Amino acid sequence: MKICEWRDAGRRLEIAGIPVVLFALYFAWFQWPETSTLWAVTLLIIFFRILSFFGFTITVLWQRLISLLRGRQLTGRPWWYRRFFE
Fold first, then answer.
1. Nearest-angstrom CA–CA distance, 32 and 19
2. Above 70 in pLDDT, residue 14?
3. Is residue 37 a contact partner of residue 25, using CB atoms and an 8 Å limit?
């Protein structure tokens, strides 16, 4: 069975396991070209790479933040029904 190569189109683009989106942080270094900014961006990329090694990618962290901000799951019943009939 031949697997279509178009199925890999949904994966995230990575260089050495680091998402390419994080390399865009180096554009901040071009804005303020200081050695401290270069080190800060590099340490941030290394930090996210370590988190990615443990399964906490940027997408997972974003989804968890949104879930935390959203709060409890909705039950689909109005407050008055939950208060008086359950």
1. 23
2. yes
3. no
Give CA–CA dist 29/15, Å, rounded.
19
Q: What are phi and psi of 15, to 5 degrees?
A: -125, 115
Q: What is the DSSP letter of 15?
A: E
Around Cβ 22, how many Cβ atoms within 10 Å? 19
b/e code 23-49 from CB counts within 10 Å (16+ = b): eeeeeebeeeeeeebeeebeeebeebe
38 closest CA partner among 49, 51, 23, 48: 23
Is the pTM for the entire model greater than 0.85? no
Tokens 């199925």 identify what position? 7
Spans of all domains in the chain: 14-67
Tell me the C-alpha distance between 65 and 7, whole Å: 29
